[in-house]
Amino acid sequence: MHSSKPAMIQDAATAHVRPPVSMAQPARRITSEALLQQGREVEIEHSGKIYRLRVTQLNKLILTA
What we know:
Complement Module, domain 1; elongated; Hemin uptake protein hemP; Hemin_uptake_protein_HemP
């Protein structure tokens, strides 16, 4: 008699497991100056929506949809 789980269930159970942090790719870093290119606001399109990244009067960044 075979007592292990069917392969389909084993695959589904492990499909969403994240790799250990040591194997993860580091996040890309870009300066706000490079992104804004001398401006104070930029529009970013993501999944069909437009987001606005802007610099506030206190020199902070705010992202709005």
